Amino acid sequence: MGESLQLPHDLQDLVNEELATGRYASSEDVLKAAVQLLREQDRCFEEFRVEVQSRMKSLENGNAIKLEDESALSGFFDDIRSRGRQRRSMDKDG
Q1: Is 30 in contact with 18 (CB distance < 8 Å)?
Q2: CA end-to-end span of the chain, whole Å?
Q3: Rounded Cα–Cα distance for residues 18 and 67 (Å)
Q4: Torsion angles phi and psi, residue 7, rounded to 5
Q5: How far apart are CA 33 and CA 30, in angstroms?
Q6: pLDDT digits (tens, 9 = 90+) for 9-67
Q7: Is the confidence at residue 94, as pLDDT, over 70?
Q8: Which of 29, 78, 82, 89 could be disulfide-bonded to 24 (CB atoms 3.0-4.6 Å)?
Q9: For residue 3, how far is the Cα from the chain centroid?
Q10: Could you give the CA distance from residue 77 to residue 89 in angstroms, rounded to a whole number?
Q11: Residue 64: C-alpha distances to residues 2, 77, 83 (Å)
Q12: Which has the closest alpha carbon to 37: 22, 51, 24?
């Protein structure tokens, strides 16, 4: 880092804990890893938000299934499990 950074004591304690594990060589390495994780978390959250938005729009457009009772729900999940087993079987064979 080109500049010195004074961390609050509680944050410095967290950095020191990470340094004590031996996984990081410096405070800078700890902070770099933290920022990278924050960016990855932000990216994942944005992907999730976009997916939820897309699914909500799909529901608003009437693209949904309606399961009337417990039997229909059970059949729905049985079908999913069956297709999953078929896929796994094909992956093993192929």
Answers
A1: yes
A2: 51
A3: 50
A4: -90, 150
A5: 5
A6: 999 999 999 999 999 999 999 999 999 999 999 999 999 999 999 999 999 998 888 88
A7: no
A8: 29
A9: 33
A10: 18
A11: 54, 15, 19
A12: 24
How many distinct helices (H) and strands (E) make up the chain? 3, 0
SS3 21: coil
CA distance 65 to 59: 9
**Gap between the Cα atoms of 3 and 62, Å rounded:** 55
- For residue range 66-88, what is the model confidence (pLDDT) as tens digits? 889 999 999 999 999 999 999 99
Per-position b or e across 19-51, b if 16+ CB within 10 A of its CB: eeeeebeebeebbeeeeeeeeeeeeeeeeeeee
Paired tokens of 23: 């996984």
CA 9 to chain centre: 30
Contact 17, 27 (CB under 8 A): no
pLDDT at 77 (0 to 100): 94
